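Today's session is about reading a structure prediction critically. Students often jump straight to the picture, but the first step is always the sequence itself: look for stretches that repeat, for charged clusters, for runs of hydrophobic residues. Only then move on to the predicted structure, which in these notes is written as discrete structure tokens rather than atom positions. Here is the chain we will use throughout the hour.
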Amino acid sequence: MLSTHRLRVVAGLAVTAIAAVVAVSSGSSATNATTLVIWADADRVPAVTQVANAWAAPKGVTVQIVQKNFGDIRSQLNTVAVETAPDVIVGAHDWVGELSANGSVLPLSPSAGTKKQFPAYALNSFSYGIAVKKLFGAPVALENIALVTNTALAKVPTSFADMERQALAAKKKTKAQVGIAVQQGSGGDAYHMYPFFSGLGGYIFGTNAVGNLDPSNIGVANAKFLKNAPLIDKWNKESLIRSQVAWDTGRDLFTKGKVAYYITGPWFLSDIQKSGVKYAISGFPQIVPGINSVPFLGVQGFMVTKFSAPHGVESLAKDLVANYMMQPSAQLALASANGRFPANLKAAAQVKDKDLKAFGKASEGGVPMPNIPQMASVWGDLGAAWVRSTKGAGAIPARRSFIGAQKSIAQKIG
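Below is the predicted structure for this chain, in token form.
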């Protein structure tokens, strides 16, 4: 077992990465410092440093922040040597199924008072288990798409029929190819299409008796959705949406004033602001009465790794993540670092930015992307179902397209 009192040297870093390794101790002898290593992406390094420093200073702990590309953290956790491994990582909630199943991350036990500060779906997003669900991460930031209205072309809709009418009127006026800019592209995009999918009664996986996602209960072509699927054929016929619209096409249609409505996330907010288009951000109107049209939620947070135990810092790492990082002040700093809405309800109430607040409002009732490994078998077929049924001329009836997608998904999972 490695000594509890040591300074671990993170080897093999390029010169550019060395600058991102930040020691936040109060400066006592390095050889006598208890060290905790955190992997974080570039956007969060300053905020993580600030939060970790506030936690570490009174404890006499040294924290090293190692900058990583966000997308590399999960894969590198499986190959890193114990000596240079992290004790804490930033990550996405849909990594939890894989990382908890292979033992890479450890369960957390925040207090009941702390847990009450989070909506159930935020905690569920970082929870996983076969018989008993356990929390494997501290949710920090919510990420979702919303409806953006060009207020010079239309009003924020009061219903889906109202949005459809205004969208098509603007399309006729500007001669745009679609009424609503929502990205798909040749490979499809089930994430951005989810408000349409949920609004028609679709779901990915149902839950079992103990509340866990059940991969044998696939709702891609459930009876309620299929009953409403002819609406997709109508949207295709009138060019309300088109699968040919890729991410850049959708962005350009809105920022150049060609469409009244755009479905996107905070990652394109700066482009919208720079365009000069007058806009308003809102949630999605119901498509079918009694069924909420809601987005997928991505939840980002922090997890304690298995390496914290042999490093002798497991209890410290859990205290930082499950206690300190879940408090409102830390949540506000960590979520704001990359322009996202905080998961903690008390922190959310302190958000001042009107656009960020609007995205947060649009997240209410949203569905966290399933965090079980079987979700990997869903994305391609669900996205392709939308492409086939919204490609204009030659489109396949939606009912048949989504039934085919469900069969393919079931075969891959089965």
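Discussion point for the tutorial: Residues 1-32 have pLDDT under 50 and may be disordered.
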